Amino acid sequence: MTGLQDAIPPARPVIGEAEIDAAVRVLRSGMVVQGPEVAAFEAEFGEIVGGRHCVAVNSGTSALQLSLMALGFGPGDEIIVPSFSFAASANAVRLVGATPVFVDIEADSFCLDPEAIAAAITPRTVAIMPVHLYGHPAAMARIMQIAEQNSLAVVEDAAQAHAAAVDGKPVGSFGAVGCFSFYPTKNMHSLEGGMISTGDAQLARTLRLLRNQGMEARYQNEIVGANMRMTDVAAAIGRVQLTQLAGWTERRRANAAYLNERLTGVVVPPVAEGAKHVYHQYTIRFTGDRDAFQAGLKERGIGNAVYYPTPIHKLRPYLGEDGMPGPWKLPETDRAADEVVSLPIFPGLTTGELDRIVEAVNAVAVQA
User: Fold this and answer.
1) Of 120, 198, 119, 203, which Cα lies nearest the Cα of 158?
2) Of the residues 13, 119, 196, 300, which has the maximum number of CB atoms within 10 A of its CB?
């Protein structure tokens, strides 16, 4: 068994001297909440989402919730979401009083299946929420076509997909809004935080009002809002991280290519034609005894995790009154939940660590 000091963690967040210096600089300035750092971060992040307006908030979940609020969705509305995602995707729908309608995923991308979307539309459907899961973009050309044909809004959950793209067009620049997370384990972070991108200037202004108690000018409340502001400390850290995102992304992609070429006994993650996968997670499929497989990797010092073992529609808040899942038939979702395992992919991995991952996976896969 490998010693704990030699274990490779599933993720390794970066908090370097530049991030620390940026935080200290802001603290010493006295301008610590929604000041010049937030404005600069919004402008700089806009460059990776096609020059869209950007609105910084305190989390990725807040980004989703505020987006749905700004679009006017609420009770009686249905929003199509994947069940194979982190619960925040559906939670945001529930928090505005709307109803999440769960549809299945594509087997290869782990993202919403456009055909399943089309079949789930009803007169109450108002929006589609594609999740660019694990850093692989959803099939946006087809999804946007379906949305336009049915006059539906598209709210992109890009929490795991900073700088991912489809045919050269970045995620977060397709729908009415795109929502990003800056949680510490994401491809870039601000300790905690989120960002909303939109091509609509008026919608951006509404989002700015909603995040700040409905105010643009102090004590001149225009609408009912919330307190979901980003601090300048978070923004300063995010700005430092953003300068490194391109390099980190290429390291993740290179690490994935290295593993793809060498792993055996598992299904490595496919990439759709025209898609730029940014590998927030490197997620394989294993069809044997997954518990034994994970335990074997852990014994060899290889961190791993399952995202997500329980589809959202099977979580307690989403069960029916009888305590059972609703009428959803989501075979690819259920299969993915049973088979996926995410391996370390963070940009700081050395060649030696990558070789250890390969050796462990290939050895354990034939035993589990």
Assistant:
1) 198
2) 196
Helix (H) or strand (E) holding 207: helix 201-211
Residue 35 and residue 180 in one domain: yes
Instruction: In whole angstroms, give the CA distance from residue 95 to residue 87.
Output: 12
Nearest-angstrom CA–CA distance, 350 and 333: 33
Q: Check whether residue 202 and residue 252 sit in a common domain.
A: no
Chain centre distance of CA 190:
15
> Contact, 86 vs 107, CB < 8 A?
no
pLDDT of residue 321: 85
Positions of the chain with pLDDT under 50: none
C-alpha–C-alpha distance, residues 28 and 306, integer Å: 41
Only one residue has tokens 């105010």, namely 215
For residue 206 the two structure tokens come to 């509404």
Length of the chain (residues): 368
Domain boundary pick from 185, 209, 240: 240
% residues pLDDT > 70 (the chain): 99
Whether the ω angle into residue 308 lies within 30 degrees of 0, i.e. cis, is yes
SS3 for 302?
strand
pTM: 0.96
Question: How wide is the angle at C-alpha 67 spanned by C-alphas 64 and 72, nearest 5°?
Answer: 130
The phi, psi pair for 229, rounded to 5°, reads -75, 155
| SS3 state of residue 118 | helix
Domain boundary among 208, 240, 272: 240
Q: Which domain holds residue 126?
A: 17-240
Q: Based on the number of CB atoms within 10 Å of its own CB, is 235 exposed (0-12), middle (13-18) or buried (19 or more)?
A: buried
Number of domains in the chain: 2
H or E segment to which residue 241 belongs: helix 232-262
Residues 339, 285: contact at Cβ < 8 Å?
yes
Instruction: Write the DSSP string, 271-290.
Output: --TTEE---SSEEEE--S-H
Compute the mean pLDDT over every residue in the chain, rounded to the nearest whole number. Answer: 96
Among candidates 54, 6, 20, which has minimal Cα distance to 299?
6
Residue 150 lies in a domain: yes
Report residue 283: phi and psi, to 5°.
-110, 115
